[in-house]
User: Fold these one by one.
Assistant:
Number 1:
Amino acid sequence: MTVVPAQQTGGGGGSSGLYDVLELVLDRGLVIDAFVRVSLVGIEILKIDIRVVVASVDTYLRFAEACNRLDLESGPNKSPGLPDVVGQVTESGARGKSKGALSGAAETISDAFRQARDEGGEQETESRPRPRKKTAAARRREEEQE
Amino acid sequence: MSTYVYGITAKSHPAFSEDLGGVGDPPRPVRILEQGELAAVVSDAPEGLRPKRRDLLAHQTVLAEAGAAGPVLPMRFGSVAPDDDTVTGVLAERADHYKERLRALEGKVEYNVKAVHQEEAVLHRVMSENPEIRALTEANRQAGGGSYEQRLQLGEMVVAAVKAREAEDAVEVQRALEPVAAAVSVGPESTGWLVNVSFLVDRDAAEPFLTEVENVRKSHPHIELRVNGPLPPYSFVEPGPAEPAGSTAGPDAAQE
């Protein structure tokens, strides 16, 4: 996550952080009154899901627990003075540990996207499955009949 | 057949590959509608189009492709016109406005920066800055974790300190990157991230911008910065109230 494909050029939409870009594609961009917009019902739910409530009893307890587990001795030395150390820790697989109320939900969704994409890039999550093995020509004919 | 609109470009815009697929399954072929000096990137709109993953990606990919060849005004996902004539009609009606926006955005791309805290690192930082939290943690630890109330009290203090850190870090990240961008657009707030800001950057000045991003990463190791770009300038198509005064990508900001 720390290493971001920031230099990525256009065209390879599939490999960029879709979740991060999603918000831009859905919420920004030009709107023209004379056009209608498709329903975004499913997406609204997704957007609400990332709004983790930070100030809750559960969060307080979880943070208290996290503080208890922290190594206080290395604390003041570790941060903010030694970025390299922190950097290494983050990159060397402590990611699972370090995600929580602050970043967990967002990552879960972005992970879900990535996973689903990896599993079958073009597959849709919605119902109404259409056999994907059909030839393009056959499908095109079908579309024309619709 | 209704028409799905991806974006608006200049007519002089070079055509892109024939087989570019748009939204729908199978992907509808992307076409260009010309009107005066402008052109709209469109395809037929599939029946029952929904914001599915592959359609969002198709929208994004078409715009990335179009944007690689010249400035494009990206439409928000899901814009559907009743027919081609409506699209060309809109282009004709607001030609001057769109031409002005295309000039303003020429050679510019959007980088969206989102940031979240690395939980463990930010806890270290908050503790090192706050003796009270340190003392309370130590007391709780010696009491075998502390009572429910004590843990609640500690947690509440920590959350408040982390939130204060979030606010400070958000300002610091934006301040660090602003000078290397042509314009800034602050995105909607969410607890999913502590920073969500889009920067309009000269395509040629992407290097200094990304260098500065790296500098922020180094100086703020407790922040996880996610940078996405170059993107079509979604957040800069209209000078809007969401942008701080004086930082819009108006004609003044454009280097012509």
Number 2:
Amino acid sequence: MSSLPYRYIVGLEVHAELNTETKMFCRCVNKPFGSEPNTNVCPVCLGLPGTLPVPNREAVKKTILVGLALESTIPKISKWDRKHYFYPDSPKAYQISQSDMPLCVGGHLDLLAPDGSVESTVRFERVHLEEDAGKLQHAAGGVSHVDLNRAGVPLIEMVSKPDLTSPEQARRFLQELRLLVRAVGVSDADMEKGQMRCDVNINIAFEHEGTTIKTPITEVKNVNSTRAVERSIATEAQRQYDEWMADGPIRTRTNKLTSGWDEDTNEVKIQRAKEGANDYRYFPEPDIPPVAVYELADLNPKTLVKTLPELPNSIRKQYAKEVGADLESILSDREEIEYFKQYIAEGMPAKVVANWIKQVPDFLSVAQDGDVLAVYGLIKSGDMSFSAFKEKVAQFTADLHSSRERTAKDTAQTLGLLQVHDENVVQSAIAEVIAANPQAVADYKSGNERIIGFIVGQVMKKAAGKAQPAHVQEAVKAELAK
Amino acid sequence: MSVKTYVNKPLNELTIEETAKGLAEAVFTSREITEVCLEHIERHDGEINSFVTITADLARSQADASDARRASGKTLGILDGVPYNLKDVFATDDSPTTASSHMLEGWVAPYNATTYRNLRDAGAVLLGKTNTDEFTMGTSSETSYFGVSRNPWNPEHVAGGSSGGPAASIAAHMSIFSIGTDTGGSIRLPAAFCGVTGLKPTYGRVSRFGEIAMASSLDQTGPITKTVRDTAIVLEVLAGNDPLDATSSSEVVPVYSKELGDIKGLRIGVPKEFFGEGVRPELETVVRTAIADLEKAGATVVEVSLPAAIHSLAAYYIIAPAEVSSNMSRYDGIRYGYSVEREESKENHTLYDIYAKSRAHGLGSEVKRRIMLGNHVLSSGYYDAYYTKAEQVRAVVREEFENIFKTENIDVLMAPISPNIAFKVGEKINDPLAMYKEDVLTVPVNISGTPGMSVPCGIVDDLPVGLQIIGPRFGEIAVLRAGAAFQSITNHHLQKANLLS
């Protein structure tokens, strides 16, 4: 596919803020966005002397759900660790994270082709649960302000294996992961709001004078849009290749580079060469006992797995072929997924449901029990056309809901949407149209089946509101087959 | 002015039981005994330096409230109206909490420690906050930013540490009881040095919420009192699960004061490794005599061996500094506490300067020593050799303590608290290793998470000696029963410090 002289080796570390009611280790409201600075804080998330963290069970549960959705292994025992670094966004000067015993180990996410078949599989190292840091706002005059509303917000880190082989695939993977956490209902994952953030690990491999060269890894931090993921990988890969070809320091470096993505200039900015790994002096968090999730009724993965909603890939595998492009937009909206599954379960064809979700969403959102199937029944029987219904859907909905006793048929009747079908009128109209259009009839008989639309249209016109198109089509076909 | 007495003692010298009885009989009011304690503090604490903050106004209002409750027949229990003090590491929103550090000088917490809430809800009257080694790091109270606490038996000697203020305040009868914390012996050692009773409960028995952490996996809050019976009474109020402390136990809290019983059937194990080399012979004799007294009174004594326990000290001085280095990181001069930024506002500081200078000026040398030790043992390349190894030792010691009570069929272990009696002020402050070695007989209890108590058991060179009583995890009843039995057959706990005689 690529004419580039090198192969990409890419892994992503994706952070997502969980949409729990309260923070990770205290009971402050979890609302990092849109509050006055430092209002959603308490002694615990301010890291005041003497305070202690108590883990949020809802956050643990939601992390396990992500792991189950990725088919990770959920180990029997998991623990937290302290990761130390000094920065004003970190009130304790350490982050409570998970080092060697995360909640979820392994797992994978498949990327599917349009027909629903597996195109590629991206494996995961782990998914762990930690706390977010606060935010710094750098004001004029070298003054910085600290807002700790975000400090202590539950944050999951999903770490992929370096299985990604192109910038485009990495972008799709990130989109897919975003879709997954939304589908599972654990995060809103809005990258613009920082609810999902991404670090990219990238190096390249290529053949050079008979040997395979692998460049040292660069970690590109703060790649915070799906488009930036794609661009940063392409940019950094080329930069590595060029540096290598120019006999640059990349040839001898063995350690990892840390860099940041500059969204404005589309540049990868190298920050520092890591001296081995950063020394965060991890050690087990002594304030939180290890958690044995299988022994806790509300966190037992064996029970939680049954509460997982149907995942996007499962829906795609069933309906991608039938529904086509509309399915992707439905999958990005949890409510639409619900409608989609509900009405399919009630017997409507997937294609029709998908169409209605796109065409008459307001009707679906206020529909009461049985409304949708009743309307569908009228359309299927030919008593009402979908286009007529759609045109007056607002009035239709209002009238239908004006009284408990109103039926869909009553409403269709009142709004003049019911289609009459007078067989005598239709038959004579057919006879007239066939007689008047010998060329079209001849075309049809010689194999141009599409011309039937024209004939049906003529019949409908002649029948002047006393014919239902579905029936007319059948009748025309029968007549022409004689 | 005639001094009011009860059971032939000035009010400040009463035990909790006596105070409660006197209050119930309306011989005196909470306000009266509170005033007596405040006056006694005023008169003598210049010499002892046990208090960092005296909360006289708060004490008076709490005492008056207690008296009002009593007048309307609604007392909150045995501690209602009883004056006490807190080691200055418990967060209280109505007085400063300094941890005896320049870093937190004047800092008032916007919240209350669970221990303070429990005592306030029980009606106890807070006289003030008492001195400690800085952030509880020390064995003599000499590392306090606010000066050393002196031993009421002889002010040339240390009160011990880190709960030197609490222990001295009880020995000098400046409060009826006190609350200390014990990470490596910090309740028991000063209790022994000052001739009072001090209990470190099982790890997880008492909530740590609001107790400024030294080493989180070892810290435990406990009472310092004049008798074992009083210790049982206070423990009942402190103990129990706290939803704000994930390490606090949900184990049921017994009514300790009703479980004291007598000495019959008591089986005592004497671990041979806790005697002999390094322990001063006269002190050993006093401790062995105490154990012999119990044997004479009907207890069974067996010699046992705890070969791993003696390695606790080495493990302790890795685990504790590791956790210290982490817990102390938050004192960065940015949000609260001492900051070079607030001190010398004319200078322009980089972020690094604020961190480095605030910590350099705000923290004392012992704290900095332990931060450096901790950072070293946690750094990559050293972690496995130090921290991992120390945790392995902890696991072995825990198991050893877990097993000994079963295999030897004993209720408690008895040993000395320290190798020697209270040393002189200044004697060891420039020799950290000698200071650390003072903890050798107390840290095994912290490393194993078991309960340990010190009760006075005699005198050497005019200074008190402590008998250490150790029980299995959540075996406070056995420890208290043995201690109460000892105090029922001996008078060591009734000896008064020279300050008062």
